[in-house]
């Protein structure tokens, strides 16, 4: 199995759309750009889906992991208190285990 080749098809968006307006087939577009027909078919399907969602008023979802929101002052104190309580309990258990308490 060879290494998978990745091409940023989105870079060819304007060319693909122009060729589609001219009435070119997916096969002709793929041959012209040196891509596979599967890549062109997938890109066109994703593009059409994105356009339908935008037309119906559904905003595009952001990609990747959501950003962490900064903690407010009260939330930060609660988190610190919980951490200290956990640490305190851990030290108590350790002292009890070593029979020093």
Describe the structure.
With 101 residues, the chain is mainly alpha-helical. It has 2 domains: 9-55; 71-101. Helix content is 60%, strand content 0%. The protein contains 4 helices and no strands. The chain has helices spanning 13-21, 26-33, 37-55, 73-97. Helix 2 (26-33) crosses helix 3. The longest helix is centred in the last third of the chain and has 25 residues, at 73-97.
Strand and helix layout:
Blueprint lengths: L12 H9 L4 H8 L3 H19 L17 H25 L4
Helix pairs in contact: 2-3
Short description, anyone?
By secondary structure, the protein is mainly α. Helices cover 60% and strands 0% of the residues. It has 2 domains: 9-55; 71-101.
Mean pLDDT: 89
Give the overall silhouette. Answer: elongated
Number of strands: 0
Quickly count the domains. 2
Protein traits:
elongated; 2 domains; single chain; mainly alpha
């Amino acid at each position: 199995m060879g290494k998978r080749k990745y091409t940023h098809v989105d870079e060819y968006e304007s060319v693909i759309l122009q060729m589609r307006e001219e009435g070119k087939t997916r096969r002709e577009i793929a041959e012209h750009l040196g891509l596979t027909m599967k890549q062109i078919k997938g890109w066109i399907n994703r593009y059409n889906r994105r356009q339908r969602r935008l037309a119906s008023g559904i905003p595009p979802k952001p990609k990747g992991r959501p950003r962490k929101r900064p903690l407010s002052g009260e939330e930060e104190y609660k988190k610190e208190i919980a951490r200290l309580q956990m640490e305190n309990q851990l030290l108590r258990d350790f002292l009890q285990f070593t029979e020093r308490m």
